[in-house]
Design goal:
The complex is a heterodimer. By secondary structure, chain A is of the alpha+beta class. Chain A has helices at residues 3-13, 16-29, 84-98, 104-130; strands spanning 32-48, 55-70, 73-80, 133-134. Chain A has a single domain (3-122), classed as Double Stranded RNA Binding Domain, CATH 3.30.160. Chain A is built from four helices and four strands, in the order H-H-E-E-E-H-H-E. In chain A, a hairpin with a 2-residue loop joins strand 2 (55-70) and strand 3. The chains are: A alpha+beta, B alpha+beta.
Chain lengths: 142, 368
């Protein structure tokens, strides 16, 4: 996973309270300008079907988008659902990392902790599913 | 037919809305929390998102609360909300091979690479009323969760799973996917016209009403059709939602729960010209995919997808125009519901006509 992909993934899946804490700390130290307030909008989700391999429109997904300028760097933030705080945190924290703000090392270290937590959660979820693995036996003809 | 409008009744309409609210709240139970609906009525929430064609679990739960559990009404409310938001992005097309599964079964093969997982399923239960739930307490819930998670052997990695249909393709038993991938039409921007492309049909069914799709698919299963489906693979799981931001960079936004069904239908003989080229008979496939965990909808969609590919449609489930014109629950329920609205003038006209005909008949009988 590329670094930027990893950061987007962590911002989407990580714990919001810890991101809010970091974003507040960042906002007190950096020049932050909100270019676009968080607002809910739609994404048309497309998916490949497996008969012909064509993609089609499955339906729309509600997301939140916003844009900020942090120390002059323009960054967009996104979140699944109507989640203005997460979208804003995403924009601010991503911007701090992209702009190599002095708080960036601290943010990255929190991200590393979050990554472990998320991985553990995902492994646990799949391990529960794995308990339901089935191997049906074929019976003799009756 | 022309319609004549009515007016007035404002106070009564407002009072009806207040009475509706009172009926929801007049018992002494505490108001439902939206989170409770979202988490504990998850299949209803999924149905509302799928039929409302908007993936928004919290708002779908809110709509269910507002609609007092009526899923069609809730999906109508959700779709109305959808129309208030701008669509700013189209996702990077997701590949279901990347799905993080919570359930994966095959009715076609006992052994599939990666294995079958029943996941959260009610399929093998006896559907007996669980009286214990009537007295479910928080302490019991916590105890169950604690014990359920206890001694869990946590696996190192969640594997990815090959598609069963890809295995059949590798053997040449299914037609290959096409290399040219046209941009799909969007039926929310351009009205459906017939014959519709397959991708338009899939979009129409993905937002269709579960009961409507099921009834039509069942007609095909019951013999008013010739599909004889077998579920090659049924998956429930999460797909990544990726978009491109203003700078053209791909951004992961989150994951979306979906249900996917691939039904394998009876083999089709190769066309004579193709047979001369050495082409052999192959299976055919039907495809279903919808938001949330809704297996009946995905299976019904897949059966209808295959049925509508019939070369010479004879039966209702094979007739694309028939199927796609009636499966939208919001359209169909809206049409049925409109009959409750005043039709005084049109009915008076029918009444006048009937009275006139009867009078005419009586006059003839009396020799006037």
């Amino acid at each position: 996973m590329e670094d930027i992909d990893r950061i987007d993934y962590l911002l989407a899946e990580g714990g919001l309270p810890v991101f809010i804490e970091l974003a507040e700390e960042l906002a007190s130290q950096a020049r932050v300008k909100i270019i676009q307030e968080p607002s809910a909008c739609l994404v048309m989700m497309q998916v490949f079907e497996t008969v012909q391999g064509h993609h089609f429109n499955l339906g729309e997904v509600l997301i939140t988008e916003c844009a900020v300028e942090i120390e002059g760097t323009y960054v967009q933030g996104f979140a699944l659902g109507d989640e203005p705080q997460r979208a804003l945190c995403a924009a601010l924290l991503k911007g701090a990392i992209a702009g190599k703000h002095p708080l960036a090392p601290k943010i990255l270290s929190v991200f590393a902790e979050q990554e472990n937590t998320i991985q553990q959660r995902k492994k646990t979820e799949f391990s529960l599913v794995a308990r339901t693995r089935v191997d049906f036996e074929v019976m003799d003809h009756i | 037919m022309g319609y004549v409008a009515v007016k007035g009744g404002t106070q009564s309409i407002l009072e009806a809305a207040r009475l509706l609210r009172y009926f929801r709240l007049k018992g002494d139970a505490p108001p439902l929390e939206v989170r409770q609906i979202q988490e504990q009525m998850r299949l209803a929430v999924d149905k509302v998102m799928s039929e409302g064609s908007l993936y928004a679990p919290f708002y779908a739960a809110l709509a269910l609360k507002q609609a007092e559990g009526d899923t069609i009404e809730a999906s109508f409310i959700l779709r109305a909300y959808r129309s208030t938001r701008p669509r700013n992005y189209i996702s990077v097309p997701a590949d279901t091979r990347q799905m993080k599964i919570i359930r994966r079964i095959s009715a076609a093969f006992k052994d599939i690479p990666g294995g079958q997982f029943l996941g959260p399923s009610r399929d093998y239960t006896q559907r007996l009323l669980d009286f214990n739930l009537a007295e479910e307490e928080t302490e019991q819930v916590l105890k169950f969760c604690r014990e359920y998670l206890k001694e869990l052997e946590v696996l190192e990695e969640a594997p990815s799973f090959p598609k069963v249909v890809d295995l059949l393709r590798a053997e040449g038993l299914l037609a290959k996917e096409e290399e040219i991938r046209p941009q799909p039409p969007d039926i929310t921007r351009e009205a459906l016209s017939f014959p519709a492309s397959r991708t338009a049909a899939l979009q129409a069914m993905a937002r269709g009403e579960t009961g409507g799709l099921l009834a039509l698919a069942y007609s095909s299963m019951k013999g008013y059709g010739d599909i004889h489906p077998t579920i090659g693979e049924l998956r429930v799981g999460y797909l990544p939602l990726n978009i491109f931001d203003a700078k053209g960079q791909k951004v992961y936004v989150g994951q979306v729960l979906v249900t996917e069904a691939e039904v394998i239908a009876r083999p089709e003989a190769a066309k004579p010209e193709a047979a001369k080229r050495g082409n052999k008979p192959q299976f055919t496939l039907g495809y279903g995919l919808c938001f949330g965990h809704n297996e009946l909808k995905a299976i019904s969609m897949a059966v209808l997808d295959r049925a509508m590919q019939t070369k010479r449609p004879k039966l209702p489930a094979e007739d694309q125009e028939f199927v796609l014109s009636i499966v939208d629950g919001i359209e169909s329920s809206g049409f049925a519901a409109h009959y409750k609205l005043p039709h005084y003038i049109t009915f008076q006209s029918d009444l006048d006509r009937l009275r006139f005909i009867r009078r005419l008949g009586e006059e003839r009988e009396n020799g006037d």
